[in-house]
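# step 3/5: fold
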Amino acid sequence: MTDRGPAPFPLHLLAPPDPAVLPLPHPARPADGVRLLRGAVYAVPDGSRPLAVDLWLPEDAAGPVPVVVFVHGGAWRTGLRDDLGPRFRHWRPGPFARLARAGFAVACPDYRLSGEAPHPAQTDDLAALLAWLRTRAAGLGLDAARPVLWGESAGGHLAALTALTQPAGTVAGCVTWYAPTDLTHLADDLPEGAYDTRDPATFEALLLGGAPAQRAGAARDASPVTRVTSQAPPFLLLHGADDVLVPARQSVRLAEALRAAGHQPDLRLVTGGNHLWVGLSDEDVENCYVRTVDFARRCTGAEGG
């Protein structure tokens, strides 16, 4: 008899478990009326770390609750999934607990940063998150069919890009705070000499996998303004009029593209506001948050909370 050696190893055993059936984290209760499932794995991209999401849920909801997906900023390079920025870190209860108390579920996901993978990995991750939410909706008590996406800075860019590239009717609305929206014209919106499209070390170049001047196709593909169609969801665009990092003209460009496609975006340029709402009073910062919650409520039909 011929010796055929040991039987081949069943390679399928090396595959990661399906996040759709993994056990969910044990809930914490960070505030009255709020459950927090911190660090549920929603995707395991090949060659990358597992991606997790925090879920802020209203306690004892009467039925499926609408979903807000918050996408963190950090220049696509860094950031924490549950951080809305320095103007909100002292809030007690925090902004996501407040949203849960208002009757929303809030999903705060990780995504692959530019040091891990270039565009479009980030929007691929957010699309995977939306699919995971739909899969887990019944067990979590979610109305995940049409979530509202919300992001700040780079997260606002990713929220907008995801909202505009999902199938029509699957996103109820999108909120962007001081977000870049047109990577092909960012240099035009900044003071002369402030931004070099040939520089491979800018945050945009690191996202695109090369300097925008050499990656013009990727820059267009990664620009929400180029992805607007007649099927776009409603948009709320908030931007500080005095933003020196991401000029307010970037939000104006997206509003103009949406209007050209037949939409009526709500564009608010906040007087005195710099990036991260630096320069605003506490009252003005809270007004930006309240306007965002009210928009999500209108988009989802959620009752006031």
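# step 4/5: annotate
The chain has a mean pLDDT of 95.
# step 5/5: archive (pending)
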